[in-house]
Protein backbone atom coordinates (compact mmCIF):
# COMPACT_ATOMS: atom_id res chain seq x y z
CA UNK A 1 0.00 0.00 0.00
CA UNK A 2 1.44 3.33 -1.02
CA UNK A 3 2.29 6.02 1.50
CA UNK A 4 2.27 8.51 -1.35
CA UNK A 5 -1.07 9.94 -0.32
CA UNK A 6 -0.95 9.59 3.46
CA UNK A 7 2.25 11.57 3.62
CA UNK A 8 0.67 14.49 1.80
CA UNK A 9 -1.31 15.46 4.89
CA UNK A 10 0.23 16.54 8.18
CA UNK A 11 -0.49 14.00 10.98
CA UNK A 12 -2.83 16.45 12.74
CA UNK A 13 -4.80 16.89 9.49
CA UNK A 14 -4.96 13.14 8.90
CA UNK A 15 -6.39 12.76 12.38
CA UNK A 16 -9.14 15.24 11.58
CA UNK A 17 -9.97 13.42 8.35
CA UNK A 18 -10.71 9.76 9.04
CA UNK A 19 -12.43 7.55 6.48
CA UNK A 20 -16.17 7.73 7.07
CA UNK A 21 -18.30 4.86 5.75
CA UNK A 22 -21.58 6.67 5.00
CA UNK A 23 -22.87 10.06 3.91
CA UNK A 24 -24.71 10.14 7.25
CA UNK A 25 -21.34 10.01 9.02
CA UNK A 26 -20.10 12.76 6.72
CA UNK A 27 -23.04 15.02 7.62
CA UNK A 28 -22.51 14.39 11.32
CA UNK A 29 -18.82 15.23 11.03
CA UNK A 30 -19.60 18.40 9.08
CA UNK A 31 -22.11 19.72 11.61
CA UNK A 32 -19.75 18.87 14.51
CA UNK A 33 -16.55 20.25 13.02
CA UNK A 34 -17.68 23.00 10.68
CA UNK A 35 -21.03 24.21 12.09
CA UNK A 36 -20.56 27.95 11.53
CA UNK A 37 -18.54 27.72 8.33
CA UNK A 38 -20.30 28.54 5.04
CA UNK A 39 -21.17 25.33 3.18
CA UNK A 40 -23.17 26.05 0.03
CA UNK A 41 -24.04 29.30 -1.67
CA UNK A 42 -25.61 30.67 -4.82
CA UNK A 43 -24.11 34.09 -4.05
CA UNK A 44 -27.50 35.39 -2.89
CA UNK A 45 -28.18 32.77 -0.22
CA UNK A 46 -25.48 31.03 1.80
CA UNK A 47 -26.08 28.21 4.27
CA UNK A 48 -23.64 27.26 6.99
CA UNK A 49 -22.98 23.60 7.69
CA UNK A 50 -25.37 23.82 10.64
CA UNK A 51 -28.08 25.31 8.44
CA UNK A 52 -27.41 22.77 5.70
CA UNK A 53 -27.73 19.94 8.24
CA UNK A 54 -31.11 21.31 9.33
CA UNK A 55 -32.38 21.88 5.79
CA UNK A 56 -31.39 18.38 4.69
CA UNK A 57 -33.25 17.02 7.73
CA UNK A 58 -36.36 18.97 6.63
CA UNK A 59 -35.99 17.54 3.13
CA UNK A 60 -35.94 14.07 4.67
CA UNK A 61 -39.14 14.92 6.54
CA UNK A 62 -40.76 15.80 3.23
CA UNK A 63 -39.62 12.47 1.76
CA UNK A 64 -40.81 10.37 4.70
CA UNK A 65 -44.12 12.24 4.62
CA UNK A 66 -44.78 10.90 1.12
CA UNK A 67 -44.68 7.30 2.35
CA UNK A 68 -42.16 6.16 -0.25
CA UNK A 69 -40.90 2.69 0.64
CA UNK A 70 -37.38 2.30 2.01
CA UNK A 71 -34.65 1.84 -0.58
CA UNK A 72 -36.81 3.16 -3.42
CA UNK A 73 -35.21 4.97 -6.32
CA UNK A 74 -35.65 8.74 -6.30
CA UNK A 75 -34.39 10.91 -9.15
CA UNK A 76 -33.45 14.57 -9.22
CA UNK A 77 -33.61 16.66 -12.40
CA UNK A 78 -32.07 20.05 -11.66
CA UNK A 79 -29.00 22.09 -12.38
CA UNK A 80 -26.24 22.31 -9.76
CA UNK A 81 -28.27 24.62 -7.55
CA UNK A 82 -28.93 24.70 -3.80
CA UNK A 83 -31.97 22.41 -4.19
CA UNK A 84 -29.94 19.78 -6.04
CA UNK A 85 -27.18 19.81 -3.41
CA UNK A 86 -29.62 19.48 -0.52
CA UNK A 87 -31.59 16.76 -2.30
CA UNK A 88 -28.39 14.80 -2.99
CA UNK A 89 -27.72 14.67 0.73
CA UNK A 90 -31.36 14.20 1.78
CA UNK A 91 -32.19 11.28 -0.51
CA UNK A 92 -29.01 9.37 0.31
CA UNK A 93 -29.13 9.96 4.08
CA UNK A 94 -32.81 8.99 4.17
CA UNK A 95 -31.82 5.55 2.90
CA UNK A 96 -33.27 5.94 -0.59
CA UNK A 97 -31.33 5.35 -3.81
CA UNK A 98 -30.51 8.58 -5.55
CA UNK A 99 -30.38 9.05 -9.31
CA UNK A 100 -29.11 12.47 -10.40
CA UNK A 101 -30.34 12.97 -13.95
CA UNK A 102 -28.23 14.64 -16.64
CA UNK A 103 -29.89 17.90 -17.71
CA UNK A 104 -29.67 17.09 -21.42
CA UNK A 105 -32.24 14.28 -21.20
CA UNK A 106 -35.41 14.70 -23.22
CA UNK A 107 -38.91 13.54 -22.35
CA UNK A 108 -38.55 10.16 -24.09
CA UNK A 109 -35.29 9.34 -22.31
CA UNK A 110 -36.89 10.34 -18.99
CA UNK A 111 -39.75 7.93 -19.64
CA UNK A 112 -37.39 5.02 -20.46
CA UNK A 113 -35.30 5.80 -17.41
CA UNK A 114 -38.28 6.02 -15.06
CA UNK A 115 -39.43 2.60 -16.27
CA UNK A 116 -36.05 0.87 -16.40
CA UNK A 117 -34.98 2.16 -12.99
CA UNK A 118 -38.46 1.84 -11.46
CA UNK A 119 -38.45 5.36 -10.11
CA UNK A 120 -40.72 5.95 -7.16
CA UNK A 121 -40.43 9.70 -7.40
CA UNK A 122 -38.65 12.53 -9.14
CA UNK A 123 -37.75 15.99 -7.89
CA UNK A 124 -37.76 18.46 -10.76
CA UNK A 125 -36.63 22.05 -11.15
CA UNK A 126 -39.33 24.24 -12.71
CA UNK A 127 -37.60 24.54 -16.10
CA UNK A 128 -37.68 20.76 -16.59
CA UNK A 129 -41.29 20.25 -15.41
CA UNK A 130 -42.73 20.06 -18.98
CA UNK A 131 -40.58 16.98 -19.64
CA UNK A 132 -42.23 15.03 -16.84
CA UNK A 133 -45.74 14.80 -18.26
CA UNK A 134 -47.03 11.26 -18.21
CA UNK A 135 -44.18 9.84 -16.16
CA UNK A 136 -45.16 6.74 -14.16
CA UNK A 137 -43.78 8.13 -10.89
CA UNK A 138 -44.64 10.92 -8.48
CA UNK A 139 -43.17 14.26 -9.46
CA UNK A 140 -42.32 16.91 -6.87
CA UNK A 141 -40.89 20.38 -7.20
CA UNK A 142 -37.16 20.42 -6.49
CA UNK A 143 -37.81 23.15 -3.93
CA UNK A 144 -40.03 20.86 -1.79
CA UNK A 145 -39.00 20.88 1.85
CA UNK A 146 -40.68 19.96 5.14
CA UNK A 147 -41.41 22.30 8.06
CA UNK A 148 -39.86 20.03 10.65
CA UNK A 149 -36.68 17.97 10.75
CA UNK A 150 -36.51 14.19 10.46
CA UNK A 151 -33.79 11.81 11.46
CA UNK A 152 -31.43 9.87 9.25
CA UNK A 153 -32.61 6.65 7.66
CA UNK A 154 -31.17 3.27 8.51
CA UNK A 155 -28.00 3.67 6.47
CA UNK A 156 -24.92 1.45 6.62
CA UNK A 157 -21.72 1.26 4.61
CA UNK A 158 -23.23 -1.29 2.22
CA UNK A 159 -26.57 0.49 1.82
CA UNK A 160 -27.07 1.48 -1.80
CA UNK A 161 -26.66 5.25 -2.05
CA UNK A 162 -26.95 6.07 -5.72
CA UNK A 163 -27.07 4.85 -9.28
CA UNK A 164 -24.88 6.67 -11.77
CA UNK A 165 -25.33 6.44 -15.52
CA UNK A 166 -22.33 5.32 -17.48
CA UNK A 167 -21.22 3.95 -20.79
CA UNK A 168 -22.09 6.78 -23.09
CA UNK A 169 -25.43 5.38 -24.18
CA UNK A 170 -28.17 7.60 -25.53
CA UNK A 171 -31.19 5.45 -24.73
CA UNK A 172 -31.90 4.12 -21.24
CA UNK A 173 -28.30 3.95 -20.00
CA UNK A 174 -26.44 1.43 -17.84
CA UNK A 175 -26.66 2.35 -14.16
CA UNK A 176 -23.69 1.67 -11.89
CA UNK A 177 -25.04 0.87 -8.41
CA UNK A 178 -22.82 2.43 -5.73
CA UNK A 179 -23.23 2.02 -1.99
CA UNK A 180 -22.39 4.60 0.68
CA UNK A 181 -19.02 3.02 1.35
CA UNK A 182 -18.05 3.35 -2.29
CA UNK A 183 -19.00 7.02 -2.61
CA UNK A 184 -17.28 7.79 0.67
CA UNK A 185 -14.10 5.96 -0.41
CA UNK A 186 -14.05 8.07 -3.56
CA UNK A 187 -14.60 11.31 -1.67
CA UNK A 188 -12.11 10.37 1.07
CA UNK A 189 -9.45 9.75 -1.58
CA UNK A 190 -10.12 13.21 -2.96
CA UNK A 191 -9.11 14.79 0.36
CA UNK A 192 -5.46 13.82 -0.12
CA UNK A 193 -3.54 16.48 -1.98
CA UNK A 194 -0.35 18.48 -1.92
CA UNK A 195 -2.29 21.70 -2.39
CA UNK A 196 -4.47 23.65 0.06
CA UNK A 197 -6.47 21.23 2.26
CA UNK A 198 -8.56 23.61 4.35
CA UNK A 199 -10.50 26.82 3.76
CA UNK A 200 -11.16 26.09 0.12
CA UNK A 201 -13.80 27.67 -2.05
CA UNK A 202 -15.17 25.80 -5.06
CA UNK A 203 -17.66 26.37 -7.84
CA UNK A 204 -19.57 23.16 -8.62
CA UNK A 205 -19.07 23.35 -12.37
CA UNK A 206 -19.31 19.66 -13.15
CA UNK A 207 -22.82 18.20 -12.98
CA UNK A 208 -23.77 16.27 -9.87
CA UNK A 209 -25.00 13.56 -12.26
CA UNK A 210 -21.35 12.90 -13.17
CA UNK A 211 -19.34 10.87 -10.66
CA UNK A 212 -16.44 13.31 -10.77
CA UNK A 213 -18.77 16.25 -10.18
CA UNK A 214 -20.51 14.71 -7.19
CA UNK A 215 -17.65 12.83 -5.50
CA UNK A 216 -14.66 15.12 -6.04
CA UNK A 217 -16.71 18.24 -6.77
CA UNK A 218 -19.16 17.96 -3.87
CA UNK A 219 -18.72 15.23 -1.24
CA UNK A 220 -14.93 15.64 -1.05
CA UNK A 221 -15.38 19.41 -0.66
CA UNK A 222 -17.81 18.91 2.26
CA UNK A 223 -15.32 16.54 3.89
CA UNK A 224 -12.92 19.45 4.55
CA UNK A 225 -15.56 22.06 5.42
CA UNK A 226 -15.19 23.95 2.16
CA UNK A 227 -17.58 26.45 0.61
CA UNK A 228 -19.22 25.28 -2.59
CA UNK A 229 -20.84 27.75 -4.96
CA UNK A 230 -23.64 26.59 -7.21
CA UNK A 231 -23.44 26.56 -10.99
CA UNK A 232 -26.64 26.78 -13.01
CA UNK A 233 -25.05 28.23 -16.11
CA UNK A 234 -21.50 27.34 -17.12
CA UNK A 235 -20.77 30.64 -18.86
CA UNK A 236 -21.99 32.62 -15.87
CA UNK A 237 -20.02 30.40 -13.49
CA UNK A 238 -16.82 30.97 -15.44
CA UNK A 239 -17.58 34.69 -15.30
CA UNK A 240 -17.94 34.31 -11.52
CA UNK A 241 -14.37 33.14 -11.05
CA UNK A 242 -13.00 36.64 -10.33
CA UNK A 243 -16.10 37.38 -8.20
CA UNK A 244 -16.31 34.40 -5.83
CA UNK A 245 -12.61 33.66 -6.13
CA UNK A 246 -12.51 29.86 -5.88
CA UNK A 247 -9.24 28.49 -4.53
CA UNK A 248 -9.68 25.15 -6.25
CA UNK A 249 -11.75 23.93 -9.17
CA UNK A 250 -12.77 20.42 -10.16
CA UNK A 251 -12.72 20.38 -13.95
CA UNK A 252 -12.53 18.27 -17.06
CA UNK A 253 -9.60 19.03 -19.40
CA UNK A 254 -11.82 20.89 -21.89
CA UNK A 255 -12.89 23.36 -19.21
CA UNK A 256 -9.34 23.84 -17.95
CA UNK A 257 -8.34 24.88 -21.44
CA UNK A 258 -11.20 27.34 -21.74
CA UNK A 259 -10.54 28.97 -18.37
CA UNK A 260 -6.82 29.31 -19.04
CA UNK A 261 -7.55 30.77 -22.49
CA UNK A 262 -9.87 33.31 -20.90
CA UNK A 263 -7.10 34.21 -18.45
CA UNK A 264 -4.79 34.67 -21.44
CA UNK A 265 -7.26 37.17 -22.92
CA UNK A 266 -8.42 38.90 -19.72
CA UNK A 267 -5.23 38.73 -17.69
CA UNK A 268 -4.07 36.72 -14.69
CA UNK A 269 -6.27 38.73 -12.30
CA UNK A 270 -9.25 36.87 -13.78
CA UNK A 271 -8.12 33.75 -11.93
CA UNK A 272 -8.31 35.44 -8.52
CA UNK A 273 -7.29 33.08 -5.71
CA UNK A 274 -7.26 29.92 -7.83
CA UNK A 275 -4.22 27.86 -6.87
CA UNK A 276 -5.17 24.35 -7.90
CA UNK A 277 -7.30 22.41 -10.33
CA UNK A 278 -8.27 18.77 -9.88
CA UNK A 279 -8.58 17.44 -13.40
CA UNK A 280 -9.99 14.17 -14.66
CA UNK A 281 -12.79 12.32 -16.46
CA UNK A 282 -10.70 12.47 -19.63
CA UNK A 283 -6.99 12.35 -20.48
CA UNK A 284 -5.19 15.45 -19.21
CA UNK A 285 -2.68 16.85 -21.72
CA UNK A 286 0.65 17.79 -20.10
CA UNK A 287 0.60 21.06 -22.05
CA UNK A 288 -2.42 22.16 -19.96
CA UNK A 289 -0.45 21.51 -16.80
CA UNK A 290 2.42 23.63 -18.12
CA UNK A 291 0.00 26.39 -19.21
CA UNK A 292 -1.57 26.43 -15.73
CA UNK A 293 1.79 26.47 -13.99
CA UNK A 294 2.59 29.73 -15.81
CA UNK A 295 -0.33 31.19 -13.85
CA UNK A 296 0.82 29.68 -10.57
CA UNK A 297 -1.86 26.98 -10.68
CA UNK A 298 -1.17 23.36 -9.90
CA UNK A 299 -3.18 20.97 -12.08
CA UNK A 300 -3.47 17.64 -10.31
CA UNK A 301 -4.64 14.73 -12.43
CA UNK A 302 -6.53 11.61 -11.60
CA UNK A 303 -7.97 8.49 -13.14
CA UNK A 304 -11.07 6.63 -12.21
CA UNK A 305 -14.37 5.32 -13.40
CA UNK A 306 -18.00 5.70 -12.50
CA UNK A 307 -17.95 2.00 -11.64
CA UNK A 308 -15.10 2.69 -9.17
CA UNK A 309 -16.74 5.71 -7.51
CA UNK A 310 -14.41 8.11 -9.22
CA UNK A 311 -10.86 7.76 -7.96
CA UNK A 312 -8.57 4.81 -8.53
CA UNK A 313 -5.32 6.73 -8.88
CA UNK A 314 -4.19 10.31 -8.50
CA UNK A 315 -1.17 12.40 -9.39
CA UNK A 316 -0.20 15.25 -7.12
CA UNK A 317 3.20 15.64 -8.80
CA UNK A 318 2.23 16.57 -12.31
CA UNK A 319 5.24 18.91 -12.35
CA UNK A 320 7.63 15.97 -12.41
CA UNK A 321 5.38 13.24 -13.85
CA UNK A 322 3.00 15.03 -16.24
CA UNK A 323 2.20 11.90 -18.26
CA UNK A 324 1.28 9.71 -15.33
CA UNK A 325 -2.12 9.21 -13.72
CA UNK A 326 -0.28 8.98 -10.42
CA UNK A 327 -0.30 6.32 -7.73
CA UNK A 328 -3.07 3.90 -6.87
CA UNK A 329 -5.07 5.13 -3.86
CA UNK A 330 -4.80 3.30 -0.53
CA UNK A 331 -7.33 0.47 -0.06
CA UNK A 332 -7.65 0.11 -3.86
CA UNK A 333 -6.64 -3.44 -4.72
CA UNK A 334 -5.41 -3.79 -8.26
CA UNK A 335 -3.74 -6.10 -10.70
CA UNK A 336 -2.75 -5.90 -14.34
CA UNK A 337 -4.01 -8.75 -16.51
CA UNK A 338 -2.71 -8.86 -20.09
CA UNK A 339 -2.05 -5.14 -19.76
CA UNK A 340 -5.58 -4.36 -18.51
CA UNK A 341 -6.14 -2.79 -15.08
CA UNK A 342 -8.44 -4.82 -12.83
CA UNK A 343 -9.57 -3.34 -9.49
CA UNK A 344 -11.21 -4.54 -6.29
CA UNK A 345 -12.21 -2.61 -3.22
CA UNK A 346 -15.02 -0.97 -1.30
CA UNK A 347 -15.16 1.74 -3.98
CA UNK A 348 -16.29 -0.66 -6.70
CA UNK A 349 -19.93 -0.80 -7.80
CA UNK A 350 -22.27 -3.64 -6.85
CA UNK A 351 -23.53 -4.16 -10.39
CA UNK A 352 -25.14 -2.48 -13.38
CA UNK A 353 -28.75 -2.12 -12.31
CA UNK A 354 -30.83 -5.00 -13.69
CA UNK A 355 -28.19 -5.87 -16.30
CA UNK A 356 -26.77 -9.22 -15.14
CA UNK A 357 -25.16 -10.00 -18.49
CA UNK A 358 -23.40 -6.66 -18.80
CA UNK A 359 -22.36 -6.95 -15.16
CA UNK A 360 -20.95 -10.44 -15.76
CA UNK A 361 -18.94 -9.10 -18.71
CA UNK A 362 -17.01 -6.66 -16.52
CA UNK A 363 -16.44 -8.80 -13.41
CA UNK A 364 -14.22 -11.85 -13.05
CA UNK A 365 -13.65 -13.62 -9.73
CA UNK A 366 -14.68 -10.47 -7.88
CA UNK A 367 -12.37 -8.20 -9.87
CA UNK A 368 -13.74 -5.33 -11.94
CA UNK A 369 -12.13 -5.14 -15.37
CA UNK A 370 -11.65 -1.45 -16.21
CA UNK A 371 -11.15 -1.82 -19.96
CA UNK A 372 -8.14 0.47 -19.70
CA UNK A 373 -4.61 -0.62 -20.53
CA UNK A 374 -1.94 0.50 -18.09
CA UNK A 375 1.73 0.32 -17.37
CA UNK A 376 2.83 0.66 -13.73
CA UNK A 377 6.51 1.35 -13.22
CA UNK A 378 8.78 0.13 -10.39
CA UNK A 379 7.99 3.21 -8.31
CA UNK A 380 4.24 2.69 -8.62
CA UNK A 381 3.51 5.44 -11.16
CA UNK A 382 0.55 4.47 -13.34
CA UNK A 383 0.43 5.27 -17.05
CA UNK A 384 -2.63 4.72 -19.22
CA UNK A 385 -1.44 3.16 -22.45
CA UNK A 386 -4.70 2.44 -24.25
CA UNK A 387 -8.29 1.34 -24.01
CA UNK A 388 -9.85 -2.05 -24.74
CA UNK A 389 -13.41 -0.90 -24.28
CA UNK A 390 -14.96 0.82 -27.25
CA UNK A 391 -15.69 4.23 -25.81
CA UNK A 392 -14.88 7.76 -26.91
CA UNK A 393 -13.95 10.00 -24.00
CA UNK A 394 -14.27 13.66 -24.90
CA UNK A 395 -12.29 16.50 -23.31
CA UNK A 396 -15.47 17.58 -21.55
CA UNK A 397 -15.53 14.22 -19.75
CA UNK A 398 -18.52 12.89 -21.64
CA UNK A 399 -18.43 9.28 -22.79
CA UNK A 400 -19.77 8.38 -26.21
CA UNK A 401 -20.58 4.84 -27.25
CA UNK A 402 -19.67 4.51 -30.95
CA UNK A 403 -22.02 1.56 -31.49
CA UNK A 404 -25.04 3.46 -30.23
CA UNK A 405 -24.44 6.23 -32.74
CA UNK A 406 -23.56 3.86 -35.56
CA UNK A 407 -26.92 2.14 -35.05
CA UNK A 408 -28.64 5.45 -35.78
CA UNK A 409 -26.69 5.84 -39.02
CA UNK A 410 -27.49 2.31 -40.18
CA UNK A 411 -31.14 3.32 -40.34
CA UNK A 412 -30.26 5.48 -43.36
CA UNK A 413 -30.18 3.70 -46.71
CA UNK A 414 -27.31 5.90 -47.92
CA UNK A 415 -24.98 4.26 -45.39
CA UNK A 416 -23.47 0.92 -46.39
CA UNK A 417 -21.12 0.77 -43.44
CA UNK A 418 -19.79 3.20 -40.87
CA UNK A 419 -17.47 3.63 -37.94
CA UNK A 420 -17.76 6.29 -35.26
CA UNK A 421 -14.43 7.17 -33.71
CA UNK A 422 -12.41 9.97 -32.16
CA UNK A 423 -11.20 12.52 -34.65
CA UNK A 424 -9.14 15.64 -34.34
CA UNK A 425 -10.71 18.96 -35.20
CA UNK A 426 -8.50 22.01 -34.75
CA UNK A 427 -6.62 20.30 -31.95
CA UNK A 428 -9.75 19.10 -30.16
CA UNK A 429 -10.96 15.54 -29.85
CA UNK A 430 -14.43 15.33 -31.35
CA UNK A 431 -16.86 12.59 -32.35
CA UNK A 432 -16.31 11.75 -36.01
CA UNK A 433 -17.64 9.20 -38.43
CA UNK A 434 -16.25 7.37 -41.42
CA UNK A 435 -19.00 6.36 -43.83
CA UNK A 436 -18.79 3.93 -46.71
CA UNK A 437 -21.67 5.07 -48.92
CA UNK A 438 -24.18 2.63 -50.38
CA UNK A 439 -23.46 3.52 -54.02
CA UNK A 440 -26.85 2.56 -55.59
CA UNK A 441 -28.26 5.52 -53.61
CA UNK A 442 -25.76 7.81 -55.29
CA UNK A 443 -26.09 6.94 -58.99
CA UNK A 444 -24.59 9.70 -61.14
CA UNK A 445 -23.43 11.66 -58.11
CA UNK A 446 -20.08 13.40 -58.04
CA UNK A 447 -17.92 12.93 -54.93
CA UNK A 448 -18.97 16.41 -53.79
CA UNK A 449 -22.64 15.50 -54.13
CA UNK A 450 -22.12 12.27 -52.19
CA UNK A 451 -20.48 14.24 -49.40
CA UNK A 452 -23.33 16.77 -49.42
CA UNK A 453 -25.98 14.05 -49.15
CA UNK A 454 -24.11 12.31 -46.35
CA UNK A 455 -23.72 15.62 -44.52
CA UNK A 456 -27.53 15.82 -44.52
CA UNK A 457 -27.67 12.32 -43.02
CA UNK A 458 -25.26 13.46 -40.31
CA UNK A 459 -27.47 16.50 -39.63
CA UNK A 460 -30.53 14.28 -39.31
CA UNK A 461 -28.85 11.88 -36.90
CA UNK A 462 -27.38 14.78 -34.90
CA UNK A 463 -30.84 16.28 -34.49
CA UNK A 464 -31.77 13.26 -32.35
CA UNK A 465 -28.64 13.41 -30.18
CA UNK A 466 -27.76 15.58 -27.18
CA UNK A 467 -25.38 18.36 -28.33
CA UNK A 468 -22.23 16.97 -26.72
CA UNK A 469 -22.63 13.62 -28.52
CA UNK A 470 -23.13 14.96 -32.00
CA UNK A 471 -20.93 13.90 -34.87
CA UNK A 472 -18.80 16.89 -35.83
CA UNK A 473 -16.57 15.43 -38.52
CA UNK A 474 -17.41 13.28 -41.52
CA UNK A 475 -14.99 11.27 -43.60
CA UNK A 476 -16.43 9.70 -46.72
CA UNK A 477 -14.66 6.49 -47.64
CA UNK A 478 -14.10 5.37 -51.19
CA UNK A 479 -12.64 2.03 -50.13
CA UNK A 480 -13.94 -0.58 -47.75
CA UNK A 481 -12.87 -0.63 -44.10
CA UNK A 482 -10.15 -2.96 -42.87
CA UNK A 483 -11.95 -5.99 -41.51
CA UNK A 484 -11.36 -8.65 -38.91
CA UNK A 485 -11.50 -12.38 -39.64
CA UNK A 486 -15.23 -12.34 -38.96
CA UNK A 487 -15.64 -9.44 -41.38
CA UNK A 488 -16.41 -6.88 -38.66
CA UNK A 489 -14.83 -3.46 -39.07
CA UNK A 490 -11.41 -3.48 -37.44
CA UNK A 491 -11.55 -0.56 -35.00
CA UNK A 492 -7.86 -0.25 -34.26
CA UNK B 1 -13.90 47.57 -38.64
CA UNK B 2 -16.79 45.36 -39.68
CA UNK B 3 -18.17 43.09 -36.98
CA UNK B 4 -17.34 40.02 -39.09
CA UNK B 5 -13.70 41.11 -39.44
CA UNK B 6 -13.49 41.76 -35.73
CA UNK B 7 -14.89 38.31 -35.05
CA UNK B 8 -12.24 36.71 -37.25
CA UNK B 9 -9.59 38.65 -35.38
CA UNK B 10 -10.98 37.35 -32.07
CA UNK B 11 -11.00 33.78 -33.38
CA UNK B 12 -7.38 34.08 -34.48
CA UNK B 13 -6.47 35.33 -31.01
CA UNK B 14 -8.31 32.84 -28.84
CA UNK B 15 -8.24 29.79 -31.10
CA UNK B 16 -5.06 30.11 -33.16
CA UNK B 17 -5.40 26.49 -34.30
CA UNK B 18 -8.53 27.35 -36.32
CA UNK B 19 -8.02 28.08 -40.03
CA UNK B 20 -9.95 31.34 -40.45
CA UNK B 21 -9.17 31.83 -44.15
CA UNK B 22 -12.26 29.94 -45.33
CA UNK B 23 -14.75 31.24 -42.77
CA UNK B 24 -17.80 33.09 -44.07
CA UNK B 25 -20.95 34.31 -42.36
CA UNK B 26 -22.61 31.05 -43.44
CA UNK B 27 -19.95 28.90 -41.75
CA UNK B 28 -21.50 26.59 -39.18
CA UNK B 29 -19.69 27.02 -35.88
CA UNK B 30 -19.55 23.33 -35.01
CA UNK B 31 -18.84 21.58 -38.29
CA UNK B 32 -17.21 24.32 -40.40
CA UNK B 33 -15.26 26.30 -37.82
CA UNK B 34 -14.73 23.33 -35.50
CA UNK B 35 -15.96 24.90 -32.28
CA UNK B 36 -17.46 22.62 -29.65
CA UNK B 37 -19.75 23.84 -26.88
CA UNK B 38 -16.90 24.65 -24.50
CA UNK B 39 -15.01 26.68 -27.08
CA UNK B 40 -18.25 28.40 -28.02
CA UNK B 41 -18.42 29.57 -24.42
CA UNK B 42 -14.87 30.94 -24.70
CA UNK B 43 -15.79 32.75 -27.90
CA UNK B 44 -19.00 34.12 -26.36
CA UNK B 45 -17.18 35.47 -23.30
CA UNK B 46 -14.54 37.15 -25.45
CA UNK B 47 -17.11 38.65 -27.82
CA UNK B 48 -19.13 39.91 -24.82
CA UNK B 49 -16.04 41.72 -23.54
CA UNK B 50 -15.09 43.10 -26.91
CA UNK B 51 -18.50 44.51 -27.80
CA UNK B 52 -19.89 45.10 -24.31
CA UNK B 53 -22.88 42.85 -24.88
CA UNK B 54 -24.30 39.82 -23.11
CA UNK B 55 -25.41 36.51 -24.59
CA UNK B 56 -28.30 35.09 -22.57
CA UNK B 57 -27.66 31.74 -24.14
CA UNK B 58 -25.33 30.41 -26.81
CA UNK B 59 -27.91 27.83 -27.89
CA UNK B 60 -29.23 29.87 -30.82
CA UNK B 61 -25.82 30.63 -32.28
CA UNK B 62 -25.41 28.19 -35.15
CA UNK B 63 -23.38 30.18 -37.69
CA UNK B 64 -20.80 32.93 -37.68
CA UNK B 65 -23.52 35.16 -39.13
CA UNK B 66 -25.73 34.48 -36.09
CA UNK B 67 -23.03 35.94 -33.85
CA UNK B 68 -22.58 38.98 -36.13
CA UNK B 69 -26.33 39.62 -36.18
CA UNK B 70 -26.60 39.32 -32.41
CA UNK B 71 -23.72 41.73 -31.88
CA UNK B 72 -25.17 44.21 -34.35
CA UNK B 73 -28.57 44.08 -32.67
CA UNK B 74 -27.30 44.39 -29.11
CA UNK B 75 -24.26 46.61 -29.45
CA UNK B 76 -24.55 49.93 -27.73
CA UNK B 77 -27.62 48.90 -25.68
Question: What's this, in brief?
Answer:
The complex is a heterodimer of chains A (about 500) and B (about 80). Chain A is α/β, with parallel strands linked by helices and about 500 residues long. Chain A is about 30% helix and about 25% strand.
What does this protein look like?
The complex is a heterodimer of chains A (492) and B (77). Chain A is an alpha/beta fold and 492 residues long. Helix content of chain A is 29%, strand content 25%. Chain A is built from 14 helices and 25 strands. Chain A has a five-stranded mixed sheet, sandwiched between helices. In chain A, strands 16, 17, 18, 19 and 20 form a five-stranded antiparallel sheet that branches. A four-stranded mixed sheet of chain A has the order 2-1-10-9. In chain A, a hairpin with a 2-residue loop joins strand 18 and strand 19 (367-376). In chain A, helix 3 packs across helix 4 (82-93) and helix 6 (180-189) packs across helix 7 (211-223). The model of chain A has no long low-confidence stretch (mean pLDDT 92). By secondary structure, chain B is mainly α. Chain B has a single domain (3-74), classed as Non-ribosomal Peptide Synthetase Peptidyl Carrier Protein, Chain A. Chain B has four helices and no strands. Chain B has helices spanning 3-14, 29-33, 37-51, 64-74. The longest helix of chain B is centred in the middle third of the chain and has 15 residues, at 37-51. Chain B is globular. The mean pLDDT of chain B is 86. The A-B interface holds A 234-235, 238-239, 254-255, 257-258, 261-262, 264-266, 395-396, 425-428, 430, 455, 467-468, 470, 472-473 and B 13-15, 17-19, 30-31, 34, 36-39, 41-42, 44-46, 49, 55, 58.
